[in-house]
C-alpha cells in the first residue's frame, strides 16, 4: 500500500514540471492546428488570386485588341509613312516603295509589293489580304475589247485621233469613258465627280492625274480618245509679283512653300522661268504641272 502510494506522490518540484510539460504539449497541439488551418486558407486564397489574375489578364488582352488599329482594305501604292509604320513596315521598306512610286510606276500585286519593298514573307502574309487594287488590275477586260467608242470609225482604231476627232473632257459622259480599256464604272464616276468638284470644267488634261486610281497607262488611253477643248477660264497669277496670300490659294502650296518662293524670288531678283520653282525648298515637284496651270511669268 505504501509502495503504490509512492507512485502517485510527487514533490512540489515534480508537480511543476508535469504541469509545464502538459502546458507545452497543449500549446504545440493548438499551434499545429492553427498552422494547418492557415495553410488551407493560404492555398484557397492563392487559388482565388490566380483566378482573379487570369481574369484581369484576359480583360487586358481584350482592351489591347480594341486599342489595336483596325486595318481596312487599301491600295498599297498609296501607303504613307504613318500608315506603313502602323502596318509594321520599317523605314527602309517604306522608302523603297516611295522611291519606286516616284518613277511613276505602280505595284499591281502582292508579289510586286514584296519585290519593291523587300518585306518579309510573314509580314506580306499578314498584309496581302488587305491589298485592294483597281478593277482594271484585278479584273482586266479581254484583249479584244474595242477601245474605240465610235462604231463608225472601226477601220481607224490604230490611227491616232486628231484634236478635232477627240471628245471634249468637259462634256464626256461616264458611259463614254467606260469604253476606254482600264476604265470601269468606279473610275468613270470618279472622273465625272472630280470634274464637278473643280467647277464642272477641266483646265487641262494633266488634271486627270488628280483622279484617285488612274494609272499613267490608263490616263494615256483616255487622252487618246478625249481632251480638254473648252478649258476653264482662269485668271493667271504673275509669279514675280504674287503675294503670299495669292500663292496659298493654289492647290499644294502652303504658307511655308509660299514663303520659300518669295524668298527665292527675292534672291534671284525675279524668276526667269516657271521651271525655277523646282529649285525652291520643299516645293512639291510632283505637282509642278498642276501648280503651273495657275501661274505665268511677266
Describe it.
One of its GO terms (cellular component) is type II protein secretion system complex. One of its GO terms (biological process) is protein secretion by the type II secretion system. This is Helix-hairpin-helix domain-containing protein. Keywords: Membrane, Transmembrane, Transmembrane helix. The chain has helices at residues 2-7, 12-67, 81-87, 91-102, 110-117, 121-127, 135-138, 174-177, 185-197, 216-225, 244-248, 255-268, 288-291, and strands at 167-168, 226-227, 237-238, 295-296. The protein is elongated and about 140 Å long. Helix content is 50%, strand content 3%. The longest helix is centred in the N-terminal third of the chain and has 56 residues, at 12-67.
Largest sheet: 2 strands, parallel
Percentage of helical residues? 40-55%
Head-to-tail CA distance between termini: 147 Å
What is the CATH architecture descriptor of the largest domain? Answer: Orthogonal Bundle
Number of folding domains? 4
Which band does the percent of strand residues land in? under 5%
Principal-axes geometry comes out as elongated
What is the top-level CATH class of the largest domain?
Mainly Alpha
Q: Say which CATH homologous superfamily of the largest domain is assigned.
A: Photosystem II 12 kDa extrinsic protein
Stretches where pLDDT is under 50 for at least 5 consecutive residues are: 143-156
Count of DSSP strands: 4
- State the CATH topology of the largest domain: DNA polymerase, domain 1
Structural class: mainly alpha
**Overall mean pLDDT score?**
80
> Taking strands numbered 1, 2, ... along the chain, how are they ordered across the largest sheet?
1-2
SS field, number of helical segments: 13
H/E element sequence: HHHHHHHEHHHEEHHHE
Radius of gyration: 41 Å
InterPro entries: Endo/Exo/Phosphatase_dom_1, RuvA_2-like
Protein name: Helix-hairpin-helix domain-containing protein
Keywords: Membrane, Transmembrane, Transmembrane helix
Transmembrane segments: 16-35
Amino acid at each position: 500500500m505504501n509502495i503504490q502510494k509512492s507512485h502517485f506522490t510527487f514533490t512540489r518540484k515534480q508537480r511543476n514540471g508535469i504541469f509545464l510539460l502538459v502546458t507545452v504539449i497543449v500549446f504545440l497541439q493548438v499551434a499545429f492546428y492553427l498552422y494547418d488551418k492557415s495553410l488551407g486558407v493560404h492555398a484557397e486564397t492563392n487559388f482565388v488570386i490566380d483566378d482573379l489574375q487570369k481574369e484581369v489578364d484576359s480583360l487586358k488582352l481584350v482592351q489591347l485588341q480594341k486599342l489595336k488599329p483596325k486595318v481596312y482594305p487599301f491600295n498599297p501604292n498609296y501607303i504613307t509613312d504613318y500608315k506603313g509604320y502602323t502596318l509594321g513596315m520599317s523605314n527602309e521598306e517604306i522608302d523603297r516603295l516611295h522611291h519606286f512610286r516616284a518613277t511613276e510606276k505602280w505595284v499591281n500585286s502582292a508579289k510586286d509589293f514584296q519585290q519593291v519593298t523587300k518585306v518579309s514573307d510573314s509580314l506580306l502574309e499578314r498584309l496581302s489580304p488587305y491589298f485592294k487594287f483597281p478593277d482594271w488590275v484585278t479584273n482586266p477586260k479581254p484583249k479584244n475589247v474595242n477601245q474605240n467608242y465610235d462604231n463608225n470609225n472601226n477601220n481607224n482604231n490604230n490611227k491616232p485621233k486628231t484634236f478635232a476627232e477627240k471628245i471634249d473632257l468637259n462634256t464626256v459622259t461616264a458611259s463614254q469613258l467606260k469604253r476606254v480599256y482600264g476604265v470601269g464604272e468606279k473610275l468613270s464616276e470618279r472622273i465625272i465627280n472630280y470634274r464637278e468638284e473643280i467647277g464642272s470644267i477641266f483646265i487641262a488634261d494633266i488634271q486627270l492625274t488628280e483622279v484617285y486610281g488612274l494609272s499613267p497607262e490608263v490616263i494615256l488611253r483616255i487622252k487618246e480618245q478625249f481632251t480638254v477643248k473648252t478649258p476653264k477660264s482662269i485668271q493667271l497669277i504673275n509669279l514675280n509679283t504674287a503675294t503670299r496670300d495669292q500663292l496659298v490659294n493654289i492647290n499644294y502650296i502652303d504658307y511655308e512653300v509660299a514663303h520659300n518662293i518669295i524668298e527665292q524670288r527675292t534672291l534671284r531678283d525675279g524668276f526667269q522661268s516657271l521651271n525655277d520653282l523646282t529649285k525652291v525648298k520643299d516645293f512639291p515637284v510632283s505637282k509642278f504641272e498642276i501648280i503651273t496651270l495657275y501661274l505665268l511669268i511677266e
